[in-house]
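Below is our example:

___
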Amino acid sequence: MKQIFEIYWLRFYGCLAVFLYHLLDRVNQYADNVYLDLTRLSTVLGTPTFIFISIFLFTIRYGKTIPAGFLSQRIKYLLIPYITYAIIYSGSEYFLAEGHPLDSGYGQLFVNYLIYCDWHGYFLLIAIQFYAFYWCYIRYDLGRYLNVTAGVMVGTLISMLYWGSATALDITLPGYLLWVIPIGWLYIFFFAIRVAHQYYYDRLNSGLGLRGQAALLAVSFMVMIGVVLMTDIELSSKEAWVMPLFLLFIGVTMRLFKGRGAPAFVRMINRHSFGIYLSHPIFFGIFEVISQKLDFGLIGYTLLLGIVGFLCSLGLSALANRHPLSGLIMGRQLRIGAAAGVSSQTAAHADRQYNLRVT
């Protein structure tokens, strides 16, 4: 499969967006102001971006031919880390709560994390469901009954109704179960397949071009900045207003970064994105305990929290992936070579120069 440079940039954004969202959650305990809310606005597309990447790459890589063992392999790579980190997070919450005994005990905490998905790993269960849905969609050629363009429109409407109803009716379920139900993310599934088809047939520039979409995206963000300044809106990826913003964001990013090689830092984040995503709150929690005994000040606390969380989760990912088994348990790193840093234009120029020398 040829290099799809745009995905490196999307994964880079998605990883940092989730990381920054959780960091701001910690900082918000000590400072609650509009500047934090405006910063958080830029992070709400992180989880939808990861869902998009998975479905897009499957469509590009496999088309209408699903390989044997597709489901079992992908479920294994997601479910094992999910169970591992459910144990780690429930245990760390229990043992770090020194001086604050938990009435429920460790057993209930473990149930909350493993069964009720009461941690950010709920994304892994969303992904598993969409892997199964993708397998069914291709295996039984469901595109005959609902093409992807109609699927995007219908899926967006259904997802908007789902999140809008949940907010308006104040519907709650234990843990993050409300977020795990795939209805709320249905629009991304069809949208990713549609974009993959456009990409494969080089029709990504059809319809509204880069400038038009970028202008709409900028206007949309300006509107949301105004809303944040004037209201107490919930800043989360699980809101109906996120959907049009996300669709525009993907459209702009896929055009803007087409053929642009990823620098070394972007490649490194991509390589360890799964491990960083899974483990960074562990180190946030450890640093939180340490910081309570020291006075870093708000700025010092924020900077140190980010540095410790990033470097430690990066280091854990690198250490775990020195062996395939530990990498499987703690989250596999992606295989991304130096070729990801060479733009398509540069590669094409090098090929032409080589051909000229040969001939």
User: Anything to note?
Assistant: Confidence is low (pLDDT under 50) at residues 349-359.
